[in-house]
């Protein structure tokens, strides 16, 4: 009986974490640039002089540093995550619900695991919140 319960829980966890949309769309994601555009940009970059290439690379590195600095100052995300982790320890299904914003399979799995044994519910909620 225990083996069937654990098998059922394992199947539920795997089905909840599997991204069906990613499996269905095995083509290039929409966010990737067009290969023709990339090829043209590379040819244009190769046609630049050495001094222009250096200046362009320096500018790109500066933009990357600015992006990383902006990303690091976002304290709202870290505060929300911290509160969700605390809530995941106290009330795992509620933390999963607040993280996902809807009652879905993650919520139900968390609720079942919390009702069966509290610790697996906490572990599952932490995986969902931090993952």
Overview of this protein structure:
By secondary structure, the chain is an all-alpha fold. It folds into two domains: 35-72, no CATH class; 75-131, no CATH class. It has eight helices and no strands. The longest helix is centred in the middle third of the chain and has 23 residues, at 50-72. The two termini are 31 Å apart. The model is unreliable at 20-28 (pLDDT under 50).
Question: Which features characterize this protein?
Answer:
2 domains
The first-to-last residue Cα distance is 31 Å
Which class do the helix and strand fractions yield? mainly alpha
Largest sheet: none
Q: Please state the average pLDDT score.
A: 77
Low-confidence stretches: 20-28
List the helices and strands and how they pair.
Layout: H1 2-17, H2 20-24, H3 35-46, H4 50-72, H5 75-90, H6 92-100, H7 105-116, H8 118-130
Helix pairs in contact: 1-7, 5-6, 5-8, 6-7, 6-8, 7-8
In short:
The chain has 131 residues and is mostly helical.
């Amino acid at each position: 009986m225990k083996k069937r319960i654990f098998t059922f829980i394992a199947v539920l966890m795997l089905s909840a974490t599997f991204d069906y949309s990613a499996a269905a769309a095995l083509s290039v994601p929409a966010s990737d640039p067009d290969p023709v555009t990339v090829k043209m940009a590379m040819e244009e970059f190769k046609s630049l002089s050495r001094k222009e290439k250096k200046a362009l690379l320096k500018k790109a590195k500066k933009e990357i540093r600015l992006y990383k600095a902006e990303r690091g100052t976002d304290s709202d995300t870290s505060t929300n995550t911290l509160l969700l982790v605390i809530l995941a320890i106290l009330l795992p299904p509620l933390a999963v619900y607040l993280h996902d914003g809807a009652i879905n399979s993650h919520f139900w799995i968390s609720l079942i695991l919390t009702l069966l044994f509290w610790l697996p519910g906490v572990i599952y909620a932490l995986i969902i919140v931090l993952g």
